[in-house]
Amino acid sequence: MAGTYREFDIIIVGGGIVGGALAYTLSKGPWQIALVDAVEKKIEDARLIALNAGSCCLFKNSGLWPALAADATSIQQIHVSHQGHFGITRIAAQELGVDTLGHVVPANAIVKSIFAALSNRENVKIICPALLTAITPDTETSTLAFDTAAGKEIYQADIIIGADGSYSTVRELLGIQTQTIDYQQSALVTVTELARHHNHVAYERFQKEGAIAMLPLADNRVATIWTSSNTHINHLMQLTPSDFLQQLQQQFGYRLGRMLQIGKRATYPLQMQQVQQQLKQNVLLIGNAAHTLHPIAAQGLNIALYEVAALTDYLLKQSSLKKCLMNLPLDSLQQSFSRRLSHGLTELFAKDLFPVNLARQAGMISFDQCTPLKKKFASHTMGKAGHVPSLFLNME
Ligand SMILES: Cc1cc2nc3c(=O)[nH]c(=O)nc-3n(C[C@H](O)[C@H](O)[C@H](O)COP(=O)(O)OP(=O)(O)OC[C@H]3O[C@@H](n4cnc5c(N)ncnc54)[C@H](O)[C@@H]3O)c2cc1C
User: Fold this and answer.
1) How far is the CA of 288 from the centre of ligand 1 (A)?
2) Residue 372 C-alpha to ligand 1 middle, in angstroms?
3) What pLDDT does residue 372 have?
4) Span from the CA of 367 to the centroid of ligand 1 (angstroms)
5) Distance 165 CA to ligand 1 centre (A)
6) Which among 117, 210, 245, 320 is placed 20 to 30 Å from 353, CA to CA?
7) What's the Cα-to-Cα distance from 248 to each of 186, 262, 299, rounded to whole Å?
8) Residue 96: CB atoms within 10 Å
9) CA atoms within 13 A on the CB side of 50
10) For ligand 1, atom 51, which residue shows the shortest CA distance?
11) Helix runs in the chain, H state only
């Protein structure tokens, strides 16, 4: 390939939360790392992310939590219900003997804290805007071509990480196929102000067509995530703020008291995507590039951060990076239960089928009465099931 050559130990393509977090946790190793993104980072992500306890530990153990703590709101209880049906599930931190079930943090705050910390890492080179145009993968050293403002640049490294999101160019250039389910649904995200405090309860209310999640934020505010068909979400976006508020109050009910006003609304298309191959030679896909989940179970980023923690553990133990991904136990990166959980929940709750509703009601009622089952469910959703990577361990 023709162009300016540069050599690194690790190249991470995609500087979203996942690529950025990995660059940061790996920066403690002895390697030269390139973090390359197609666009200059503008902090304008409206998502409000429910981080499970494991992900919070990752931020605490890697020293990023002090920068996030002021924007993080603790979840003390999760309350799941279904409109028009009997049966409620509650999971409480106190009942499980833990301080918190997780925290809600704005995606913007996470990105900001990661990039502020990265700016102090001399062994991480942030390169953007640089558009990936070609990859020649190899078990030892791979070669990547980027179009940059300075012209064509060629980078080489022992390990390539594709963290370039749901429409991954890395994946496409390697010819890796995906299994995709387009739900024909979108998520509408906004912030709702309440007349009273939420008492740190996160609500998930399933409906005939989709769900409404209300997650605790600072003061009397909650993050509202309304998932529904594309047509319905388009309709909700057209409503005036006061008409939207009225619809929201009517559909969600008064569990959180009276709703006073909403903030700016943003929408995200929803799909489930799973790669058929996560590793090709020395190129590994992680985060949304490897698997995009329905946000109903609030697990997409949590699963990706688990991958970041497990991969960091693995790489920090290697004496040489060359060929080391060939021995990577891919199972150790995957929390397959969570993936099944997210997809399963959508299938179970998004359809208004009478037998499914009956099963759901029966399932939810017995689930609420069965503490050991709840503990098992909670340990998975909190990111604490099975083998736990060191960055996910509670060191306090
Ligand atoms: C409404 C909503 C709510 C959610 N809530 C939760 C939640 O509560 N909890 C949770 O765990 N998860 C949640 N998720 C999922 C979570 O947001 C994602 O899993 C996570 O943000 C994925 O991050 P990523 O870094 O893998 O991908 P992205 O954020 O998409 O980042 C990819 C990066 O790659 C760059 N890029 C793309 N193409 C190229 C290229 N060719 N060359 C170089 N760079 C490139 C992009 O510019 C971008 O910076 C939610 C998702 C949605 C839509």
Assistant:
1) 6
2) 33
3) 57
4) 32
5) 5
6) 245
7) 16, 10, 24
8) 15
9) 28
10) 295
11) 17-26, 53-61, 65-69, 93-96, 107-118, 169-173, 230-238, 241-252, 300-316, 336-350, 354-369, 371-381
Q: Which of 22, 39, 40, 47 to mutate to test the pocket of ligand 1 (most atoms within 8 A of CB)?
A: 47
For the CA of 301, the nearest atom of ligand 1: 11
CA dihedral angle for residue 331, residue 332, residue 333, residue 338, rounded to 10 degrees: 70
Indicate the domain borders of the chain: 4-71+105-179+273-351+383-392
Q: Which CATH number is 4-71+105-179+273-351+383-392 given?
A: 3.50.50.60
Amino acid at 89: T
Residue whose tokens read 């946000």:
295
**61-114 confidence digits (pLDDT tens):** 999 999 999 999 999 998 888 877 766 778 888 888 888 889 999 999 999 999
Please state whether beta strands 4-7 and 88-92 pair in parallel, antiparallel, or not at all (unpaired): unpaired
Whole-number Å distance, alpha carbon 380 to ligand 1 midpoint, is 21
Least Cα distance to 20 among 225, 287, 386, 314 occurs for 287
What is the number of the ligand 1 atom nearest to the C-alpha of 292? Answer: 19
How big is the CA angle at 110 (ends 109 and 113), to the nearest 5 degrees?
Answer: 80
Of 54, 39, 1, which is closest to residue 378 (Cα–Cα)? Answer: 54
- How many angstroms is it from 166 CA to the middle of ligand 1? 7
Structure tokens at 42: 């503008």
Which pTM does this prediction carry? Answer: 0.88
Q: What distance in angstroms lies between residue 1's CA and the mean position of ligand 1's atoms?
A: 30
Residue 374 contacts residue 364 (beta carbons within 8 Å): no
Rounded Cα gap, residues 78 and 105, in angstroms: 16
Rounded Cα–Cα distance for residues 204 and 352 (Å)? 17
* CB-defined site of ligand 1, < 6 Å: 13-19, 36-39, 47, 49-50, 131-132, 163-165, 169, 187, 189, 225, 268, 287-288, 295, 298-302, 304
Q: Whole-angstrom Cα distance, residue 110 to residue 65? A: 9
Taking the CA atoms of residue 13, residue 15, residue 16 and residue 17 in that order, the dihedral angle to the nearest 10 degrees is: 110
> What is the position in ligand 1's atom list of the atom closest to the CA of 289?
26
28-62, pLDDT tens digit by residue?
Answer: 999 999 999 998 866 677 789 999 888 999 999 99
